[in-house]
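Reviewer 2 asked us to include a model.

Predict the structure of this chain.
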Amino acid sequence: MLPLVGDLAPPHRRAAALSVVVSGLQLGILIARVLSGTIANFVTWRAVYWMSFGLQYLIFILLWMFMPDYPSTNTNMNYFKLLWSIVEMLGRHAVLVQACIASFFTSATFTSFWTTLTFLLAGSPYHYTPLTIGLFGLIGIAAMCFGPVYARKVTDRFVPHMSVLVGLSCCLVGVCLGTYIGTFNVAGPVLQAFLADFGMQTAQIANRSSIYSVEPKRRNGVNTAFMVATFCGQLVGTAAGNHIYARAGWIGSGSASMGFIGAAILTMLARGPWETGWLGWKGGWSFRKKNANSADGKTAETGRRLGQMQSRDEEMGAEEKALAEVAAEGDESPLKGRSDVKLDRSEESQWSSGDGGIRLVKD
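Predicted model (structure tokens):
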């Protein structure tokens, strides 16, 4: 779905369009926490899985009914070649590798926090119920609402690299506050939930906006590489957060999250927005777009599907205008009621548009 958004949205508004869909994905994760906590507080935990079962079938039906037809862009490649081409892309595009590594560490921080938060709030000094713990997801939802606004006002106006660094900085500040305040004051986890979720969403949207410009006809493959790194990061964050919390408590798991975010920031600082190689800041330190109509600030492109529709509309409009001009020369339509005019498919008598217009030839 996200590559489809990348195809349909104009490049200079791609971040804003992606932010809406990404917000929906993140909201689903956070709302699931609220619903699961509420359900588990009143009925058996198995009801959560029955609800998930029903929602999955509902999503399948809705997609079947409303998802538009999307023609294939790489019909000459089989499934295994498509998979291998994703690996080859990682060797060609440094910006894709950079985005995948940054997403890996950022996602690890996200899942580590939300997994260990339950342990912190259920124990001393809070002893919250599952319902109260689940309601903490509402804080993350509030942060997600600012994502589309920031994407439209900032991410679309500057190179994505800047927004990634801003997002990661927000995550780092939130993790620091939550780690060292959370053991004695609930304000720490609240601030971390807000800042970390906003920062992660900002960084993810900016990275997607950047990488979708590298190979416009292979956006599905680009998205696959990015999402594999993201999901691997989520798995590592969940596993590492649980193990570290069991041995070193809340501060230990939070310190590990600070390390994850620090690694993501170093990854983004290792290569600048104008660098064409794998490392360095060649091209300058400016974060302003050189091409205001592009998504990454430097790659000239158009929304492929949108461009095709506009081109088709222009062709139809030109034909209708030409027919109207021909009809205006006579008393009635040139296509009927005229015995002295006819359409001849020969080379001497035909509808001709070779000079940019349409000419009616009489016998």
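Residues 219-269 form the longest helix (51 residues). The chain has two domains: 2-70+84-269, 303-363. We have added this to the supplementary material.
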